[in-house]
């Protein structure tokens, strides 16, 4: 398990399925490294008159820029073609070369949201196919014991315990800026320890994806 200040580069992009994922799963990492050039892509809810403005307000507080798409996010979780998601990502990226990419885990962060899983696969495949380039790629590393408890850091992942002040800032973004109720899933989940599986080799990341994204590094 790794802990502490875990970033060493400056040009970073976060690619997530929904507005709030960037804050919930890695907002503390962004806040702690506010001098980095953070760009955030949310692949859904860009046409949501309530969530979209909240996303951009959060980005200002996070000292980040970003953009949104309008991929289907209906409650039915109808599967999307991976090529459609890949195209959406490539169309939204401001460039194709980064120091760090952060995205979802292939198994998602909880049981279960199909869009999280699809976005993870799309990003990992784009890296493997050399359509995007990065020195490092991190996926979120959380699990919920198959709904036994709220999502928490994988024990063997690289962990980043948040200073109390940073966690409170992140919690305020979730409950005040996004407006999720204190008793709701998002507020109760808001991790005090952020966690990642880290890769420097796209081939190893792709093999991990093919084996289900559950290998312990």
From TrEMBL:
One annotated GO molecular function: hydrolase activity, acting on carbon-nitrogen (but not peptide) bonds, in linear amides
Pfam families in alphabetical order: PIG-L
InterPro entries: GlcNAc_PI_deacetylase-related (IPR003737), LmbE-like_dom_sf (IPR024078)
Highest taxon listed in the record's lineage: Bacteria
Protein name per UniProt: GlcNAc-PI de-N-acetylase
